[in-house]
Amino acid sequence: MPPRLYPRAFSTRFYPRLLTIRPLTTTSSAFPPPPTLTPDFISPTPTHLLDIALSPYLNTAVPSDFPRWPKPLPPGHHLIYFPPPIPESQLLRDGSDAQHSPTPLLPRRMWAGGSLTFDSPVDTYSHAHLREEITNVVHKNGKVFVSFDRHIYTARSSDVAAIVEKRDLVFLPPATSPPPPRGRNRPPEEPDFAREFATTEHLLFRFSALMYSAHRIHFDPGFAAGMESHAGPLVHGPLSVVFLLELLRAEREGRIKGFVYKCLAPVVVGEVSSGTLN
């Protein structure tokens, strides 16, 4: 079974029948935008820096030698590549990019879940490109769920995507009160392996920098508390995914071919989280 991260819980099941598709009355007439194509050079520097940043949380040795030869990206490390090439003028007040937002009436966004399929390696020191397309927009109880298909192609996999990612973001109205207190999620069964860790503001800022992300909820305590009504900055959804994939890679032999997850609750910086394997 895939690993789980608590208190941000992940589930492999999704219930589309519970969602109601309604006319897009609250979305912008220019939404969704057309598919985008983003090229990138897979430099070894970002993945090397991510390994360094994560080493104290994964109990791994700090990489000392800079990788001088091509090697496959670890599963999930593609998330810090292919940053959207948009100017600051196209960022929203919270620092997120406007092209993914369905309407200014829903200014808050959260990572809701997704899936990853790894078909072939994406090597460092190579060129690749990302094709991203919004495939579904669903209205539910005053929220809007936006689904993205992301396909990464390399020179040797120009016809078949090396990595296929599906991700879901949820867009929310302005916060009017702090979220209700919640208990800590518990694994549904006794895990074979568990590791607890707590993130820091330093790690969150570093991960934002590697992603070229200005989303203030991840590194601005005043914004996270004042505008979003959270106890502090939130751990990135992609960072939680990378944690789980690194845990799976360290504790299970073989190649990771696919990964499905769902985010059930946010993780505030400093909260103790537990990654588990069953």
TrEMBL record:
Lineage, top-rank taxon, reads: Eukaryota
Extract the GO molecular function terms from the UniProt entry. Answer: (3R)-hydroxyacyl-[acyl-carrier-protein] dehydratase activity
| Gene3D superfamilies associated with the record | Hotdog Thioesterase (3.10.129.10)
GO CC annotation: mitochondrion
List, alphabetically, the InterPro entries matched.
HotDog_dom_sf, Mitochondrial_HTD2
Show the PANTHER family listed in the entry: HYDROXYACYL-THIOESTER DEHYDRATASE TYPE 2, MITOCHONDRIAL (PTHR28152)
Report what the protein is called. N-terminal of MaoC-like dehydratase domain-containing protein
**Record organism:** Tuber magnatum (white Piedmont truffle)
Output the lineage of the source organism.
Answer: Eukaryota, Fungi, Dikarya, Ascomycota, Pezizomycotina
